[in-house]
Amino acid sequence: GLQETCSILAQREAVRITQTRVPDRASEEDLLVYWMTRRGKNEGVAMETVQDAYVRKTLSLDELFDQFIVSGTSMYTGGLHVPSAIIHELMARVADGRVEGIDIYGNWMNGDFDFKSLDVGPERFRYHTYFAGPNERAGFGTCVAHIPAHFSQVSALMRSVNPDYAVVQMTPPDARGMCNIGPLGFEPGSI
Questions:
Q1: What pLDDT does 158 receive?
Q2: How far apart are CA 20 and CA 23, in angstroms?
């Protein structure tokens, strides 16, 4: 099974680094030097492995919401296999008033997401979807809004919306720092 993890891309710089290609034959040391250089670190700083950096940056749900997903946040979630623990926690926090002014953008979420029961106004929570499945259709009229767009338009749509974060399910990094975000080809351009 796919281990559910959260990759919060808090800064646009992190997105560019994630999407930057390094030579196929780069050693782990070359990759770390490249990573340190791209992030503007000084030479001579002790480098850590990609896996150590991953572990160090892993957050609990409470830390995630305390530090990043606060009132007024907008985020991209992708579609189908979304980070369900994060979406469920978000919905619980919206329902009990701990966060508001949340806008999420994505499409057909597989799983048990009861948007119909999240009966809050758009000033508290709005899920903007460009491809509706059963969960989304059930939430039309409450907190789900349809965006008429084709998949080929999603990257341009996300550039115009400019969400604060992208929250997508992905694998942990391998020794070279490469992660798999799944088979949905439209997601990398949207992140």
A1: 85
A2: 10
